[in-house]
Design brief:
Blueprint lengths: L1 E4 L14 H12 L2 E4 L8 H15 L9 H16 L5 E5 L2 H4 L8 E4 L4 H4 L11 H17 L2 E4 L2 H11 L6 E3 L12 H4 L8 E6 L8 H13 L4 E6 L12 E4 L7 H13 L2 E3 L9 H8 L4 E4 L14 E4 L5 H12 L2 H17 L3 H12 L4
Parallel strand pairs: 1-2, 1-3, 3-4, 4-5, 5-6, 7-8, 7-10, 8-9, 10-11, 11-12
Length: 377
C-alpha cells in the first residue's frame, strides 16, 4: 500500500505537533505500507492571509481563522489533487488536516485522524475564541466535509470520537478510538521504568509550554499545600518560565528542553526517572502526548478531567484526574496520599508502564490502523 501523507507541516520535523505527525508516519510505515510525504503543503498568499488576520484581530479583538477558511481549503484541495495525480497511491492519510482534504474530490480512500474537532476547540483554547460568526461557520463546514469524506476516522479518545458522531454526524461504523503513543525514539526498558525514585521527598514534575493553560498556578498552590502539611516536596517545572510570584526554594525551573537533542533528551529522561508523579493540572487539553511519555517511564499522572485526557489516564490505573474546579489543596491531598502509600504507589507505577506497553505506544497505533484498514475489528 502506498500512502499519500498529506500535512501542512513537514512530517520529518519532530517539532511539528509535538512530533505526532512524524511518529504517526513512522507507525504507518512500519505496519501499513510505504508513506510518501506530500507535505509541507504550501499555497500562494499564506503570509498575506496571516498578516491580514493578525491585523484584524489587533484592531477589533475578533478572530478570523484563515487556516480554517473555505478559500484556503479549496486552494489546498487543488494543490493536493495535483500532487496526487503525479504518482500512484492507494490511500490518503491526513493527520489533523481537515482543511487539507475537506474539498478533495472523491477518489482515493481517506483516513483522517485528529485529537479534536473544530467545534470542540472553539471557545476552549484561547486562539479559537472571540471568533467571527463566518469563521465559526466555515470552520465547522470544513470539519464536517472532512469527516464525511473519510472512509476511516481514527481518534485518540472517546471525547473526540463521540463528538464527531453527535455533532458532525460521523458514521459510527467509520469511527475508531485508537490512542496516540509516546513520541520517543528510545523508550526506557521496563526494568528501568519500574525503578522507584528516591523516597526522601515527593518529587513532582510539571511539563508544559503554556503556563496558564497547563495549570501552572494550581501546581504551585498544590506544592504550597504539601509543604504546609509537612510533606517533603520538590516541584520541577520544565518548558516555560513561571511568573515571579511562583518562585519558591523547593521549585526548580528549566525554561526549555529540546527532547530532539541527545543531551537535553537525557536531562529530561533523568527528570522522569527522579519524579514520583507527572503533575500537570491542565485547564484545557485535547489529548496530551506528555502523559503517554510519562507512562513509558512508569510515572503516574495526576491531572484534570478535561478534554481528551481521560483517553490516556485511566483512574487508578496510570494516574488520577480531578475535576476542573479542584483546588491546589485538593490536589495536595491526593498527592500526599500517594506519597505516603508505598505499596499503592508501586502498583501504580507497574500499571503505568503496562499502559504504555499495551496501548500508549505508536506500534500499538500502527497495528490497530493496519487491522482497521484490513477490515478487522
Amino acid at each position: 500500500m502506498r500512502i499519500a501523507y498529506v500535512t501542512a507541516a513537514d512530517p520529518r520535523d519532530r517539532h511539528s505537533w509535538s512530533g505526532t505527525v512524524h511518529y504517526m508516519a513512522r507507525a504507518l510505515e512500519t505496519h501499513v505500507g510505504e508513506v510518501v510525504p506530500l507535505g509541507p503543503l504550501r499555497t500562494p498568499g499564506l503570509p498575506l492571509r496571516r498578516a491580514g488576520a493578525k491585523a484584524f484581530h489587533s484592531v477589533t479583538g475578533r478572530r478570523y481563522l484563515y487556516k480554517h477558511s473555505l478559500s484556503l481549503a479549496r486552494a489546498y484541495a487543488r494543490r493536493t489533487a495535483r500532487l496526487l495525480a503525479r504518482e500512484r497511491f492507494d490511500l490518503v492519510v491526513a493527520p489533523a488536516g481537515s482543511a487539507l482534504v475537506s474539498h478533495l474530490e472523491p477518489g482515493l480512500p481517506l483516513l483522517y485522524s485528529s485529537d479534536a474537532t473544530f467545534d470542540q476547540v472553539r471557545d476552549y483554547y484561547p486562539e479559537f475564541s472571540h471568533l467571527l460568526p463566518i469563521s465559526v461557520r466555515q470552520g465547522n463546514e470544513i470539519e464536517r466535509r472532512a469527516i464525511a469524506r473519510a472512509e476511516w476516522l481514527l481518534y485518540p479518545s472517546a471525547w473526540v470520537a463521540d463528538f464527531a458522531v453527535k455533532f458532525y454526524g460521523a458514521d459510527p461504523g467509520r469511527v475508531h478510538v485508537v490512542p496516540y503513543g509516546a513520541n520517543l525514539d528510545s523508550p526506557p526498558s521496563a526494568d528501568v521504568a519500574r525503578r522507584l525514585p528516591d523516597p526522601a521527598s515527593c518529587n513532582l514534575l510539571f511539563i508544559g509550554v503554556d503556563w496558564e493553560r497547563k495549570g501552572g498556578a494550581v501546581a504551585v498552590a498544590a506544592y504550597d499545600a504539601l509543604v504546609r502539611q509537612g510533606v517533603p516536596a520538590r516541584l520541577t517545572i520544565v518548558g516555560c518560565t513561571p511568573p515571579p510570584d511562583a518562585a519558591r526554594p523547593g521549585i526548580r525551573v528549566i525554561p526549555f528542553l529540546d527532547k530532539n537533542q541527545p543531551v537535553e533528551r537525557a536531562t529530561l529522561d533523568a527528570l522522569y526517572a527522579d519524579a514520583h508523579v507527572l503533575f500537570v493540572p491542565t485547564r484545557r487539553e485535547c489529548y496530551g502526548i506528555v502523559f503517554c511519555e510519562a507512562a513509558a517511564f512508569g510515572v503516574p499522572v495526576v491531572s484534570t478531567d478535561t478534554g481528551g485526557v481521560s483517553g490516556i489516564v485511566r483512574e487508578g490505573e496510570n494516574g488520577f484526574l480531578l475535576p476542573p474546579e479542584a483546588t491546589g489543596a485538593e490536589y495536595a491531598k491526593l498527592l500526599a496520599e500517594l506519597f505516603e502509600s508505598p505499596e499503592r504507589y508501586r502498583s501504580l507505577r507497574e500499571a503505568s508502564r503496562a499502559a504504555f506497553d499495551e496501548r500508549l505506544n505508536w506500534d500499538a497505533f500502527g497495528r490497530s490502523a493496519a487491522r482497521i484498514l484490513g477490515g478487522g475489528a
